[in-house]
Amino acid sequence: MKIAILTQYYPPEHGAPQNRLHDLARRWVLKGHEVTVLTAMPNYPAGQIFPAYQGKFTFTEAIDGVKVIRCWILPSKKKSTIRQLLCYFSFVKSAAFFGMFKLGRADFLICESPPLFLGFTALFLKFVKGTKLVMNISDLWPESAVQLGMIGKGPALSFLEWFEKLLYRKSSLVSCQTEGIVDGVKKRHPEARTFLFPNGVDLEMFTPVTPDLKLKKELGIPEDCFIVGYGGNHGRSQALEQVLEAARILKDEKIFIALFGDGPEKPALEKKASESGLKNIRFYPSQPRQKMSQIQGLWDIALVPLKNIPLFDGARPSKMFELMGGQIPFIFCGKGEGAEVALKSGCAKVVPPENPEKLAEAIMEFAKLAKDDLARFGEKGRLFVSENFNRSVLADQFMKELEK
């Protein structure tokens, strides 16, 4: 089968959609399918084109056997809504132009949303190439933008809601990352053919590792502390202020919190930590995905924080599954689907989102456990994802859905 994937985000960037889509594409290639990805020049999350790709309008490469066609994008370093919109629409236009000439015919075009605006390009290429459209929804837009305060009521919101429904009507299949998203799509377009394609884990990459003491020293992580780690985006959705406040509460304990990643909120978070005189928390830049599994091996536990908004009651952050693959216990700061998965895994404690007091309490509960008891939490998590969220199995299930 010939499949095209349209996405603004793709490796060598790091993130949930990047990892999920690349794992899917490379597994399909290994099964003999022809997969081509149409994507932007890598720039996420710092909003700066990666050095190896600078100065190019288009560029074609192969990653793990997957053909990747890259197009120009105007990256956004600032949190400005206008600048972000310019970023989105620059790729919408360039992907439509280069996709028209460089993308071959395919049986299916899979479009990753958000950003919802990429649906303009998807509809154009569906018409030009005569292919079936699959919308892959990892976040319900524009609903999420409204709850995050990025857009208010008015003509723009009404148009986006209409356009969202149009995309579902024009799709042969709508794949969704959570049950909540499935319900949201069905609410907007009851006739939509939906398929649950949850986040999962590459069990070959994320596996238990022996702590690398040399790496620990290089990163300046103290030897005599209980290590709490976070790896991922530093944005509005994560509400990492709750972690800073928990660090303040725990400032007199032998607890060290290491935050890895980048994002629009990171400068403000670093400034706040510095002004508060927090010595038990440190920020680190984003790391290659392969290295993150080694870094996670240094952590005693990890954090999966979310903002306290109704939208995230249906969220299942991908980092949960990667942590379980590495047998790392974690604290989930959230409600709904993610909390249910975390509790079922036997690998986590769940606390209310944006509740630093409860978060600090849960950290101390973990810190007081014996090493063997902590290890048993991790072992349960590895078994849970092996049986329920193995990306190899998920890729096969997706292909079977396309073949129906």
Task: Describe the structure in brief.
The chain is of the alpha/beta class.
What is the typical, i.e. mean, pLDDT? Answer: 94
List SSEs in N-to-C order: EHEEEHEHEHHEHEHEHEHEHEHEHEHHH
Shape: globular
User: What is the CA–CA distance across the termini?
Assistant: 13 Å
The strands making up the biggest β-sheet line up spatially as 3-4-2-1-5-6-7-8
CATH fold node name of the largest domain: Rossmann fold
The CATH architecture of the largest domain can be given as 3-Layer(aba) Sandwich
CATH superfamily of the largest domain: Glycogen Phosphorylase B
Total count of strands: 14
**Share of helix, binned:** 40-55%
Under CATH at level 1, the class of the largest domain stands as: Alpha Beta
Radius of gyration: 21 Å
User: What is the count of structural domains?
Assistant: 2
Largest sheet: 8 strands, mixed
Provide structural commentary:
With 404 residues, this protein is α/β, with parallel strands linked by helices. Helix 1 packs across helix 15, helix 2 (81-102) runs parallel beside helix 3 (118-129) and helix 11 packs across helix 14. It is built from 15 helices and 14 strands.
Helix and strand topology:
Elements: E1 2-6, H1 16-30, E2 34-40, E3 58-63, E4 66-71, H2 81-102, E5 108-113, H3 118-129, E6 132-137, H4 143-147, H5 155-170, E7 173-176, H6 179-188, E8 194-196, H7 213-218, E9 226-231, H8 241-249, E10 255-260, H9 266-275, E11 281-284, H10 289-296, E12 301-305, H11 318-325, E13 330-333, H12 336-345, E14 348-351, H13 356-367, H14 371-388, H15 391-403
Parallel strand pairs: 1-2, 1-5, 2-4, 5-6, 6-7, 7-8, 9-10, 9-12, 10-11, 12-13, 13-14
Antiparallel strand pairs: 3-4
Helix pairs in contact: 1-15, 2-3, 8-13, 11-14
